[in-house]
Design brief:
By secondary structure, the chain is mostly helical. The protein has helices at residues 3-12, 23-46, 50-76, 90-100. The protein is elongated. The protein starts with a helix and ends in a 17-residue tail after the last helix.
């Protein structure tokens, strides 16, 4: 999956927490959200007082799709999306990064069929 396909797929599944997402889909979309956050911060810095509000709005717009993509990515390796709550701890962030970077499970699981081509 390429950059633009990943963005369109994740945005079309804005709040879809069911199903599976490939590793490339998740990471390309995550890169897009980081770039959008940086862009919002840069633009916000030029807007003065309203800049912080603009940056926070952009962050909130992408919060649900990032959580949904992360949940679908965890489903792809056979884990529940609720494991994202580990993000609230330092050790949990490391564990989530390892899981998000893991290979997809080729077999079907309770979250659906394998999405690899």
């Amino acid at each position: 999956m390429n950059f633009s396909t990943a963005i369109s797929t994740c945005l079309s599944k804005y709040a879809t927490f069911k199903g599976r997402a490939t590793r490339s889909e998740f990471w390309w979309f995550y890169l897009f959200t980081v770039l959008m956050g940086w862009g919002a911060t840069i633009v916000g810095a030029t807007l003065g007082d309203i800049g912080d509000v603009f940056s926070n709005i952009v962050t909130l717009i992408f919060l649900i799709p990032v959580l949904a993509a992360g949940s679908r990515r965890l489903h792809d390796i056979g884990r529940s999306g609720w494991w994202q709550l580990l993000m609230l701890t330092v050790i949990g962030v490391i564990l989530l990064l390892v899981w998000w970077a893991s290979d997809s499970k080729k077999e079907s699981n309770e979250y659906g069929e394998c999405v690899l081509a």
